[in-house]
Amino acid sequence: MLALTVVMIAGFVILIGTLVVSLNRQGPVLPDSIALPDGATAVAFTQSSDWFAVVTDNDRILIYDRTGALRQEVAIER
């Protein structure tokens, strides 16, 4: 019975430690502002480690690098 208690306490401590480490990890840094083309409104956002994308209400996907510079624009056809 004592062995089971020790194993469960150790597992709980490891679980909490893993949670604390992952929550303290800094995520990707985004620029303070993003310049969208005139008339475009953002409706969705996604990101990876070196780029982020904004989906606009006029059916375009704008892909930016981490500095905020536009890398690519993709038109969505209907």
User: What's the number of domains?
Assistant: 1
What is the strand content?
Answer: 25-35%
Question: What is the second-level CATH architecture?
Answer: Beta Barrel
- Give, in spatial order, the strands making up the sheet with the most strands: 1-2-3-4
Spans where pLDDT lies below 50 across 5 or more residues: none
Helical run tally: 1
| Integer-rounded radius of gyration | 21 Å
- Assign a percent range to the helix content: 25-40%
Plain-language structure description:
- This protein is α+β, with helices and mostly antiparallel strands and 78 residues long.
- The protein has a single domain (2-26, 34-75), classed as Thrombin, subunit H (Beta Barrel), CATH 2.40.10.
- Strands 1-2-3-4 form a four-stranded antiparallel beta sheet, with no helix packed on it.
- It is built from one helix and four strands, in the order αββββ.
Structure characteristics:
78 residues, alpha+beta, Thrombin, subunit H, four-stranded antiparallel sheet, 4 strands, 29% helix, 31% strand, elongated
SSE blueprint:
Elements: H1 2-24, E1 42-47, E2 51-56, E3 60-65, E4 70-75
Antiparallel strand pairs: 1-2, 2-3, 3-4
Summarize the structure.
The chain is an alpha+beta fold and 78 residues long.
